Structure formats: structure tokens, C-alpha cells
Description:
21 helices; 4 strands; about 75% helix
Amino acid sequence: MNFSDIISAVNNFVWGPVMLALLMGTGIFLTIRLKFKPWINLGFALKSVFTKSDKSKKDSSSGDISPFQSLMTALAATIGTGNIVGVATAMVLGGPGALVWMWISALFGLSTKYAESVLAVKYRETNAKGEMAGGPMYAMKNGFKNKKIGLTLAFLFSLFATVASFGIGNMTQANSIASAVQGSFGVPTWISGLILMSLAFLVILGGIKSIGKVAGVIVPFMAVFYVLTALLVIIINFENIPAGIAEIFTMAFSPTAMAGGVGGTIIASMLTSMRWGVARGVFSNEAGLGSAPIAAAAAKTDHPSRQGYINMTGTFFDTICVCTITGLVIASSGALGTLDASGEMLMGANLTIAAFQSALGPIGGYIVTVGIALFAFSTILGWEYYGEKSLEYLIKAPIAVTIYRVLYCLVVFVGATTALEIVWNLSDAMNGLMAIPNLISLLVLSGVTAKECFEFEKNYLIPEKMAFKEMKKK
């Protein structure tokens, strides 16, 4: 067995049924342990995202960037090609019903993302530059009673995250952009690579404050642009929506089912639908992988639970909103199950492009290409911060971070111009392996999360709700 086969075997395990069951199981356990508070308080969480922070609370808040910028940085890394390509792949391999399982995984993922972010803020530290350093590795280091186990898990998580940042957060994204732009506009990949590398240098060398500012602009813009265009496609194809939705729910829970009509010739069992839906859902929103809480730890906040609620909305926006929109575009287009010129079933980006073109013609393909470019570039920015903070945990010397930033930007060019499958498989495996120490940490420290959750509810959330009601009366 060669190195490539070993990596492939590891990859199949970390994104296979056992791992997906652990991810879902942890989400279910945390939801029950937290007495469904992440679900009950979702409205409060969404309101918090769009409410300007009270400047009078500034003194009691410590952090590098605003809670909104922290969420946007996490969303920058989370909303990526998975929302365009991943949904299409899931709906081909798992049938239209995979979308329902993506929703279910996201609902329990709310609790996972909440818990990750609470622990990241609670156990964060201040580094030599006076910046916040936090994430699962610091929760393991500072939260575990058994220091040896905590430090070992923290080391493994940081190592996996650093390696994964170069592949899943960088090369694969740069390659997606360069390939899409070449296919739609005929731009050579080396030109796209140079432009991407230059833009990455401009933003990344400024650190988290620069990434946070850019993410605060680019993420809302790209999400609104994509969602509005997708809604236009859905409106144009509206007569197919009832049949599409019926097929989505029928195939999600049928032991064996074949999609007819808008679903073409897709055949999938309930278990296949569940497997691909949960896998693509987790891959898209990253709940349980431990990446997003690294950005949460940089936020200015007066309580870990407040940032936990704000950051968990990332799962809601990513999967319940953006992935659903993509799924409905595909389900209503009639493109699912169709074949391309070579007789192969349309999949991934090509399927999403065909779905958009069904309503908008050639311009639909250009819109998907622009969407992929924006989504993937924002992922490059968000994952740089994850990798940087993970490396900072492993190597304390500040020069290591500077070298990492420069190397990361150079690798963007390599990713845009080269398809190194073994590198992608290795980073994909590392991305999944991050989840193992993170899930252990979430389960071990679930009592701490619950305590923070209920304490925030009693001392902050209920008084704030009462104050808001009094204000409305006046």
C-alpha cells in the first residue's frame, strides 16, 4: 500500500459513516444537554448579528474585532464552494432528499457550533502582540483537568488544522476559482493565480483586523448577490417548485426511491440520502470540525455565551439559507439527473451552472462562476487565519506567523495553476481529523458549556428581554 492509498483510506474513514455518526451524535447530545437553548434562542442570536454593539459595554469587552466581523470571518471560511458544488454533488449521489438531511445536520450543528465558540472565548489567551489567541486547542490546554491528555489533543488539533489550511482552505479554493474563470471567460489559470495571490497578499499581511474588515464587506455582498440571483431562478421556474419539494421530502425518508420528473433518473435509498446529506452539510457548515471557533475567539464580547449565539448563526446562514437556495434552484430546474455531451451525469459546479442557465440562459453560468470566485476567495482569507492561529499555538516565535502568511499567499498561485490530487486528499483527511480531538473536547467540557449557557440566560438574556419589553411599552 503506497502513501496515496493510505491517505485515501484515512479520508474514507474521516468522512465515512462512523465519523458522521459521531458528529451528529455530539450535536444531538449537546442539544439535549443545553436544554434546546440554541434552538429556542435562535431568534435572539439572529437579532444580535444585526444589532450594533452597545459602546457603553466597551470596557467590559475584550477582543480584536467586532462580533459581526468575527462571524463574517468565520462565514468567509465556511460559505465556500460547498454551497454551490457540494449541494449539487449531494443531490446527485444522495438524491434530492439529501437536502433534508443537510437541514437536520445543521439543526444539531447549531448546538455544536455554539459550544465550540463558547469554549473558544472562555479559554482564550492574549499573545505576545496583544492579540487574542483561542480555539479548540486552548480549550483543551486550559480546560482539561488531565493536562497531558489536553495538551496532546491540542497539539494534534493544531497540527491537523495547519496542514488542512494549505489544502482545503487554499489550494482547492484557488483551483476552483481558476478553473471556473477559465471555463466561463477563457482566462488562463496563471493570470487568475497571479491576481488571487496579489489580492491575498494585500489582505492577509494585515492580519485579523484586515481580514475582518474585508470579510465584513465581501461576505454579506457575495451572499446577498448569490441568494437574490438564485431566488430569481426559483421564481422563473416556480411551477416546478411543488414537485421539486415533494421529491426532496419523499426521497429523504423512502427506503428506496427513484426521482422522476424534475429529478431525472436519480436513484437513492434513505441511507444513501442521509449519508451524503450529513456529509455535505458538515463539510459545508464545518460544525464540529473546530475551525470557526478560532475566529470567535478574536471577538470583542462581554460573555462567551453571547459570542456563542452569534457564531452559531453561521451554521444557519450557511446551510439553512444558502445551501437550501442552491438545492431549490437545482430541484426546480429539471437539470438533476441529466447527462452532459459525453454521456456522464451532470454533477458539481456543472449541474449548478445548468440549473441557473435553465432560467437565465448563458448569463446564469457567469453568475455561478462569479459566485464560486467570491465564495472561494473568502474561504482562502478565513482559513489563513485558522492556519495562522494553529501554527502560533505550535510555534510561539512571531517570525513563524510572518513566514506562514507569505508562504500561504504563494501557495494560492500553486493551487490555481496545479491540480495536485494527493495534496488535496491529504488536506481533506486533515480537515476531517481535526474533528476527532474537537469532539472529544466538546463532550469532556460539555458541563462547562452548559454552565455558561444557563448563567448567561439568567444574568444577561432574561434581563435584556425584559428591558426590551419595557422599552416597547414606552
